[in-house]
Specification:
Blueprint: H1 15-36, H2 41-68, H3 74-96, H4 103-122, H5 126-131
Helix pairs in contact: 1-2, 1-4, 2-3, 3-4
Bound molecules: fe (ii) ion.
Amino acid sequence: MALFTWNDSYSVKVALCDQQHKKLFEIINQLADAMRVGKGNEIVSKTVGELLQYTRTHFQQEEALLKRANYPQLAPHQEQHKKFVADVEGLLKQTREGRAANSIQVLNLLRDWLVNHIQKTDKAYSDCLNAAGIR
Ligand SMILES: [Fe+2]
């Protein structure tokens, strides 16, 4: 069951980013499912590892587009990316060490990221990128 569903309200009006955000929703749903049904730490940490890897790739590509468009809010945007990566790294370390993740805490982190980061911070770049011909 998908806990987080991508819909148009998440669109940042840049095809590559929307596509990568959809993929992130998928991985996050896999993680939520794994935790919900009480899958072992091994599965949970494998999924967290995938989330971390995909997130890094996505952030790099998104930041490259922001640079290309001379986006004025690049630095604070990168700060949010860094913070999220650090949080997921912490979670990965924790699950790899066999310490069970607090699923409420993890889901709150992911929800905060989806809702606040994509819906506010990411959506703020739409006009700037579109004006630079990036769609
Ligand atoms: Fe972003």
